[in-house]
Design a protein that fits this description.
By secondary structure, the protein is of the alpha+beta class. It has one domain (10-179). The chain has helices at 9-60, 87-93, 167-172; strands spanning 72-73, 120-122, 138-141, 176-179. Strands 1-2-3-4 form a 4-stranded antiparallel sheet, with helices on one face. The protein is elongated and about 90 Å long. The termini are far apart. The model has no long low-confidence stretch (mean pLDDT 78).
Length: 182
């Protein structure tokens, strides 16, 4: 007769199952926290950019930054129709931001927006074009978990008409915006 105490195979399987279940719950929770953290950074970045744009507007009586493109991906240096610096770089050069913020999921290479993560800027220059104008601008981002009310297409913390559509919304899934021309 053996007096050895040991675990049965069933008991070991139950323990392994419970550990696996707990690990999957923790993994989902951590992933949700990462998404919320990235969205919080996007909101903070756009708020910083809005402050910088407003300061530039106060100092220069226009939101159009000299020699900076006022339309599209705000951190991209366009070379059409002439060499232009990015709008974000224009704000940095004017000492309104220390560095040009980037979306946390934007790939490392500047100009790579294949996953639609990046910040965009536009406005209305008075001609009907989407350039940042003397009196208005709008900055856009793509939130991973937006707080969108029924019937709206923009996150509820956005500024402007939340039912209005935009080419940025339909083309690039932008769902958060701040500014005067939104």
């Amino acid at each position: 007769m053996h007096n050895k105490k040991s675990f049965t195979l069933i008991e070991i399987m139950v323990v392994v199952f419970i550990i696996g279940l707990l690990a999957s719950i923790v993994t989902v929770s951590v992933n949700q926290s990462r998404i919320r953290g990235r969205d919080a950074k996007r909101r903070a970045d756009l708020d910083t950019l809005r402050t910088a744009v407003e300061l530039y507007g106060d100092q220069h009586s226009t939101y159009a930054v000299t020699n900076a493109i006022g339309w599209g991906w705000y951190d991209y240096n366009y070379d059409w129709p002439a060499p232009w610096t990015s709008y974000g770089e224009g704000l940095r050069v004017n000492s309104l931001i220390q560095s040009v913020p980037r979306d946390p999921r934007q790939p490392a290479g500047v100009g790579d927006y294949s996953n639609n993560f990046g910040y965009m800027i536009s406005g209305d220059d008075g001609s009907g074009a989407l350039w940042v104008g003397q009196n208005n601008y709008c900055i856009f981002a793509h939130l991973e978990q937006p707080s969108i009310k029924s019937g709206d297409i923009w996150d509820s913390a956005s500024s402007g008409d939340l039912k209005a559509t935009s080419s940025w919304n339909s083309l690039y899934q932008m769902n958060y915006r701040l500014g005067t021309a939104c």
